[in-house]
Amino acid sequence: MNIEIIPALDLRGGRVVRLRQGDYARETGYAIDALEQGRRYRDIGARWLHVVDLDGARDGGFENFKVLEGLVRLGLEVQAGGGVRDEAGLRRLLDIGVRRVVVGSIAVRQPALVSEWIARHGADRIVVALDTRRSDAGWSLPVAGWTETAGVLLDELAPRYAGAGARHLLCTDIARDGMLSGPNLELYRHLAQVAPSMQVQASGGVRDLDDLRSLQGIAAAVILGRSLLEGRLDLGDALAC
């Protein structure tokens, strides 16, 4: 099965930015318009777009909602997250045409509630984001824009969500996010063992076509951020690969 290529736009204060290892103090801003960039990705041939409201991820709410609405109107299949704290927030995104809602912090803190959402709205409408950082205890799960550490491990939650019928699992190795150091293949092979029924979206570290090829057979999709924004990887080549 081919890997789904999903370009990403991270938004902060209405601007397109990237953080290094999830650190809000290590931001790189890009002199591009989010809507123009989304349109460019669409015209090259992308089917999906991954959008993160970084303000919402840290503080809750939807600080970049108007930009997100504009991106949805481009006609791309949008999966978006950051700021979803309750079902009203989930419905707000679904109502404007977001195809899949990405839930992170609340998926870690309230797995029973998110499992109810999956049953109610369907497994294809929700992406469970279990972004992780290696610790002495195992793969820990930071929350609130990766600024706080939750007392639960990836190996506990991933199988639980698989058992609840979740289909899409987005997992970022935070240490590699925005670092262009290559994807953590060990992590994704591990997920294939602990949650084999889930379609894993790999995120963090992808630099080039060789990195994409290395994920073949391990991940169902790959999120591409900095490598595309900085021209290190051509989206057309990635889609063809």
UniProtKB/TrEMBL annotation:
It comes from the Bacteria. Gene3D superfamilies: Aldolase class I. Signal peptide: none annotated. Its EC number is 5.3.1.16. It is an enzyme of class 5 (isomerase). One of its GO terms (biological process) is L-histidine biosynthetic process. Pathway: Amino-acid biosynthesis; L-histidine biosynthesis; L-histidine from 5-phospho-alpha-D-ribose 1-diphosphate: step 4/9. It is found in: Cytoplasm. It catalyses: 1-(5-phospho-beta-D-ribosyl)-5-[(5-phospho-beta-D-ribosylamino)methylideneamino]imidazole-4-carboxamide = 5-[(5-phospho-1-deoxy-D-ribulos-1-ylimino)methylamino]-1-(5-phospho-beta-D-ribosyl)imidazole-4-carboxamide. Belongs to the HisA/HisF family. This is 1-(5-phosphoribosyl)-5-[(5-phosphoribosylamino)methylideneamino] imidazole-4-carboxamide isomerase. It comes from Dokdonella immobilis. The lineage of its organism: Bacteria, Pseudomonadati, Pseudomonadota, Gammaproteobacteria, Lysobacterales.
